[in-house]
């Protein structure tokens, strides 16, 4: 198992390129199950989760070739409809194969993903939607089974905005008979990226990026070549880190609109954000002001950036309040930040953070993906050495994080640990 060792207190300076988006890549790879023919998906981030999705597709009978940031997928004639527990338990996003499998093969049996460190994460809205489209659903022995000769169009209103729920039903609807309307759909850019991929393969999806998405079912989708959008959460993580004293970072390859909600908050903190020809440049504030945030579905402040923003607020000059509205247990980083000298009080779904002069480096433990990223930021801010254990969480969502931070001048290394 690896650990990441950080010597904090150095400003970040320089430029880096944003990798492909994990949360766009996963549904797009799952969507290849709908196609007949060969696809080539480009700009994939080199992440454990992308490999897991590749393994899952291979296990379902697709031919997969992965090299560098490209995956070739050949989805002709596969028959297997079972996504087994062994793979699904390592990655919740495996549930994204449910919609495509039932649409393409008429049946699917997918291990229930269960909860995770950040919350219970139910999928009843995915199932309710498939049922409205004519699927017979059975949940038994830890698996969900869905069956339908051919799904039919339906109008589906989501009670809660759900990202993978919207994606699952949007994918299923592309091969359904008739028209499906998804109301109160998620508006995340990753939804639009998936819709663009589906449309490039011959689907008829309109309205992605708004809360009403209309999908006219077609007989079949073909394969093709598609390049995944950049990762706005990775970009956001680096923008937050660039607020540490004396830093100036240019992020390349990310449109401003994807990080606007965050950028506005970072400007309130005193940072200077400039949209330049070759990227977004952030210059750290002289005095880091405390700012409150409240997480919300896109275009609001992303829950996936809440932990990282909190790490920054631990060294702000004053008190801030962070409210987490999406997941019920997404404060796992708080205990670790407190071990580094942060002053944080939890009150229900709110955290009150009283900024301290400095954090102090300590051995700490990564608990989930974004919490881990927040610990890296805390380590960069801290005086002395921070050792982050269980970094496999980070590797699920950040490509070469230590190399990218090193390129910006940080002292970060990965160390192999033998027990
Ligand atoms: N929800 C329900 N019922 C459902 C589905 C969702 O009650 O059937 C609730 C959830 O419990 C949660 C809220 O709806 O309270 C939103 O959950 P959502 O379904 O949108 O989350 P998700 O689709 O499982 C994706 C990302 C997450 C990200 C969330 C929110 C992927 C693969 N995952 O999860 O990413 O936090 O949307 O933006 O796209 C990460 O990358 O670290 C990560 C966790």
List keywords for this structure.
single chain, 419 residues, alpha/beta, UDP-n-acetylglucosamine1-carboxyvinyl-transferase, Chain, 2 domains, four-stranded mixed sheet, 14 helices, elongated, binds uridine-diphosphate-2(N-acetylglucosaminyl) butyric acid
Q: What does this protein structure show overall?
A:
The protein is α/β, with parallel strands linked by helices. The protein is built from 14 helices and 26 strands. It is elongated and about 65 Å long. The mean pLDDT is 96. The structure holds uridine-diphosphate-2(N-acetylglucosaminyl) butyric acid. The site of uridine-diphosphate-2(N-acetylglucosaminyl) butyric acid has 22 residues, from helix 1, helix 5, helix 6 and helix 12.
